[in-house]
Amino acid sequence: MQTQEMIDLCLKHTMWSWSARGKVNPLPIARAEGIYLYTPEGERIIDFNSQLMSVNIGHSHPKVLEAMKKQLDSQLLYTFPASATEVRARVGQKLAELVPGDINTFFFTLGGAEANENAIKAARLYTGRHKILSRYRSYHGATNACMQLTGDPRRWANEPGTPGFVKVMDPRPYDYSFGESDEEKTANNLRYLEEVITYEGPHTIAAMFIETVTGTNGIMPPPAGYIQGLRKLLDKYGILLVCDEVMCGWGRTGKLFAFEHYDVVPDIVCMAKGLTSSYIPLGAMGVSDKIAAHFDDNVFWGGLTYNAHALSLATAEAVIDVLIGEGMVENAAKMGAVMRSEMDRLQAKHPSMREGRQIGLFGMIDVQKNSKGEPIAPYNGTHPAMGKLAAFFREEKLFTFIRWGSFMCNPPLCITEEQLLEAFEIVDRGLDITDEAFEG
Ligand SMILES: Cc1ncc(COP(=O)(O)O)c(C=O)c1O
Hints:
Layout: H1 3-13, E1 31-33, E2 36-38, E3 44-47, H2 50-53, H3 62-73, H4 86-98, E4 103-109, H5 112-127, E5 131-135, H6 144-149, E6 165-168, H7 182-200, E7 205-211, H8 226-236, E8 240-244, E9 268-271, E10 283-288, H9 289-297, H10 310-325, H11 328-349, E11 353-359, E12 362-367, H12 384-395, E13 398-399, E14 402-403, E15 406-409, H13 417-436
Parallel strand pairs: 3-13, 5-6, 5-7, 7-8, 8-9
Antiparallel strand pairs: 1-2, 2-3, 4-10, 9-10, 11-12, 12-15, 14-15
Helix pairs in contact: 3-10, 4-10, 7-8, 11-13, 12-13
Residues 52, 111-113, 116, 139-141, 211, 215-216, 244, 246-247, 272 line the site of pyridoxal-5'-phosphate.
């Protein structure tokens, strides 16, 4: 098929996430390997966002492809959810070993939203309470309940949703400030949160969901002491802590799970994306021993046709082996330091660069319109210079996401220093474009 025919047919017969069909300009991709995507014409594009921050080990790793083929050949692909399979046994055991603390029991789903949906159910069934707290600067998935969990503007068109979801501000909101120092931000935000909990009635709140490190809404590591303080505050009221590690988990931040940076263990952890590096759909909800024990005697009222799919689990097993066996979590931490120094270099050089945030290979650059630090684009808005920057990245064959006045830096965790510097060299030239729009 010719590339244009492929694009035209995709546009004619398929719908696209978060888009009006007439405005989509899809990227033609024929194959992908390592950190690179290839167009049908063989053009090489650096994947500087691991697609949806999800292809953590890089594309088409031969060991994973081999394991997937082996599973296909075993004639065990799909069996109904109440079946025991060897791969289900192995992956359950492996996750129990790898996920810190007392999280030893897992419910398999097809993706992140389903993991969160089931975490909502588990939290409500376990506590007997119905309200769920989450934060405005968050994305938790596109299903009905996850849209109500989500704080960002993708929620708006999906309202009104089901009742019982209460949103609060982060310690680092978009504009409002809880203080200057980390200590102030943490203390003031937690004080505010405790007051919200009081107003809502602690006995009505089942859980609070957080992205341990906020992803799409800004790649924002929490201020010092916040996660630990949050854990204590929620414990005081018997509210469960659910860490949504769909994006920040599986090595992205330089540790296997982001909550390991903060020495806490949540009651429930949700994962997807990096679990199979997105080679095939799979998500999981992991619950603590006390929650698992509750469901020894009480029914877990959730189910999925594709729960514990053997091919997905075989893929996860191989992906985890590669991620850990090839030292990619350590590489994320090491290359994160290179990303840090590149961000600092670019900030010193480009007046339009407001800030570069990163933890491991989870990074974002904010663009400002003036020296007062005003974002170049308002909340949920755009600016022509960001459009030009997007066109430039596409021309220069650097794939990444531009969102409002910021853009993402989330390459696969197998990236080398040389490859990372090549990507930042393109970013460097791209920031010349936004510098032209800088108002001084
Ligand atoms: C933090 C977070 N949670 C949940 C989801 C939803 O995952 P999925 O698209 O697999 O349903 C995403 C997807 O981007 C995410 O980033």
